[in-house]
Amino acid sequence: MSSTAVPVHQEAEFQGTTRRDFLTLLALAGAGVGVAAVAWPFIDSLEPAADTLAAGEPLDVDVSKIAPGQQIVVMWRGKPIFLVHRTPQAIKTLQSPKLLSILSDPNSHVAQQPTYAQNWHRSILPEFAVMVGICTHLGCVPGFFPNPSPTDPAPNWPGGYLCPCHGSKYDLAGRVYLGVPAPYNLPVPPYRVMSPTMLRIGENPEGSDFDLNSVVQI
Ligand code: FES
């Protein structure tokens, strides 16, 4: 796959620009090195055709190559999709009463995900998170800080995402914190599990017809 395929697709979406689109692209440009460094080996290894990507057709991702505690970013329909391999400790933290008490919508009542991901881990498999990596405030790309820390990037950090634009915080299931500018959890795109090591982004499990355009906010 040509390394220009994704930017060309982003540019196509940029033409009907909004402020959110602009900020997303700006942030993607800033994060471009990291995205490229991590995502390209996976995309290249799968070699989806450029026209497949352009059409927003399903994209298979081999998650066996994501080490526990790490994230890769792939582009689907011109959007960054975060795929995280959560550690057992991170999975445990998702259910921590202390964490739940500081989240805005801990039980995912707002329709920001398909029903098959409306659960405490907001995914099909607890160990793998799949989210649209666009902040629900004004569309920047949140930074990935998976490790708990007393100080970094914020006091008493449990692991999650911090948006570089206005400081919104999300946990490792994309659930937004209380008292930050972002109003909603990160969207979960349609996806299905093809095998223990392969996820298909852009296709629902059998029996579901979830459409990403139906979420409250991307
Ligand atoms: S765009 Fe993320 S906090 Fe404003």
Mean pLDDT, to the nearest integer, reads 83
Backbone CA Rg: 16 Å
How many domain modules? Answer: 1
CATH homologous superfamily descriptor? Rieske [2Fe-2S] iron-sulphur domain
**Strand percent estimate:** 15-25%
Distance between the termini: 27 Å
Mind describing the biggest β-sheet?
Answer: 3 strands, antiparallel
Order of helices and strands: HHHEEEHHEEEEEE
The CATH topology corresponds to Rieske Iron-sulfur Protein
Question: Your description of this structure?
Answer:
Strand 8 and strand 9 form a beta hairpin. This protein has a 3-stranded antiparallel beta sheet. Strands 2-3-4 form a 3-stranded antiparallel beta sheet. It has helices spanning 5-14, 19-46, 50-54, 88-93, 97-100; strands spanning 59-62, 71-76, 79-85, 128-132, 143-145, 160-162, 169-171, 191-195, 198-201. The chain is an alpha+beta fold and 218 residues long. It is globular. The longest helix has 28 residues, at 19-46. The protein has 5 helices and 9 strands; from the N terminus they run H-H-H-E-E-E-H-H-E-E-E-E-E-E. It has one domain (5-214): Rieske [2Fe-2S] iron-sulphur domain (Rieske Iron-sulfur Protein, 3-layer Sandwich), CATH 2.102.10.10. The model is unreliable at 1-17 and 29-47 (pLDDT under 50).
